[in-house]
Amino acid sequence: MEIEWKYKNAFRKALKLIERYYPDYALIGRFARNFYAPPETTLDIDFLVNLDDYERLAEFIEYVSSQYQITPNDVGHWQYVIIIEDIKVDLVKPPAYKITEEFISKRRQIKIKGVGKIYIASPEDLAVLYVISSKQRGVKDIIKAKDIIKYSIARNDFSEEYFLKKCKENNVEYLCLSMLSNI
């Protein structure tokens, strides 16, 4: 995947920071979605990381705040925004979402020209994250989840069993079953 030059340096810096503190990360959001469904433009970079480890998070915030703007700048939130060279980098972990060994094993490693190798969430995990966010953000995220599912199924690259398991864990099984029945 080729991205504009203005993102490459910020992306590399963000990746270096995240790999240092959160090696079990996954790229999510539209950058990841673009590997599974028709591309959409994005202006930020989103990572799923384990924000539940407050000791690690405190160290991360201290280190990052010495170089970049980070908000909020205290422990205990489910989303953080870092500004690296005018590029918004989001670190998120929805409160109920579990980053398990299975999640880690299902990530995909890709190479982004000018950035390097990076892990992205599996299509199932990414779709579940969109379903979860749709409860607050609305139907647009359901459409993104459906696109990921539809195109991944067409490529024979989607486990309905794993998807439904993650949906059940996150109390969105009814939405997920409805989506699958309409694809």
Brief overview:
With 183 residues, this protein is of the alpha+beta class. The protein has helices spanning 5-21, 29-33, 54-65, 101-106, 123-137, 139-154, 160-169, 173-181; strands spanning 26-28, 44-48, 69-71, 79-84, 87-92, 108-112, 116-120.
Structure description:
The protein is an alpha+beta fold. Helices cover 49% and strands 18% of the residues. The protein has 8 helices and 7 strands; from the N terminus they run H-E-H-E-H-E-E-E-H-E-E-H-H-H-H. The chain has helices at residues 5-21, 29-33, 54-65, 101-106, 123-137, 139-154, 160-169, 173-181, and strands at residues 26-28, 44-48, 69-71, 79-84, 87-92, 108-112, 116-120. The strands form 2 sheets. A 5-stranded mixed sheet has the order 1-2-5-4-3. A hairpin with a 2-residue loop joins strand 4 (79-84) and strand 5 (87-92). The radius of gyration is 16 Å and the shape is globular. The model has no long low-confidence stretch (mean pLDDT 93).
